[in-house]
Amino acid sequence: MTRSLKKGPYVDEKLLKKISGKKPSTTGLIKTWARASQIAPEMVGFTFGVYNGKEHLEVLVEEDMVGHRLGEFSPTKKFVRHGGKMQKDLEQKKKEAEITAAKAAKAPAADAKKK
After folding, report:
1. d(Cα 72, Cα 25) in Å, to the nearest integer?
2. Closest CA to 36 of 65, 66, 10
3. What does the alpha-carbon distance between residue 24 and residue 17 come to, in Å, rounded to a whole number?
4. Which residue windows does the record flag with biased composition (Low complexity) (predicted)?
5. Rg of the chain over CA atoms, in angstroms?
6. What secondary structure letter does DSSP report for 69?
7. In 3D, which of 99, 94, 15, 2 has the Cα closest to residue 51?
8. Upper half-sphere CA count for residue 112 (Cβ side, 13 Å)
9. Where are the domains of the chain?
10. CATH tag, 13-73
11. pLDDT for residue 33
């Protein structure tokens, strides 16, 4: 659910203090744990280090991010590809096909040099 319009957007006070009076070009990475904080127009151009539970991921705030939450741009789960034995077989066949294609491409070039 969205936040009530009567209450207004939630922006972390400490985060606003850290960027107040500073220029985005001179300020480095601003570390924060406030994933629930909404991105305000004043934050555009700043680089935030948003904590994902393990490390701070860099998020460069752009104009089209205004209104979203900081946590949306710092995923907490790492995607591990699907598959198993079947997937490995498919990848191996693909790699072999690439190698044979590369060898076939080299062969005409070698023949041209001999002539």
Report:
1. 23
2. 10
3. 14
4. 99-115
5. 24
6. B
7. 15
8. 5
9. 13-73, 82-115
10. 3.30.860.10
11. 96
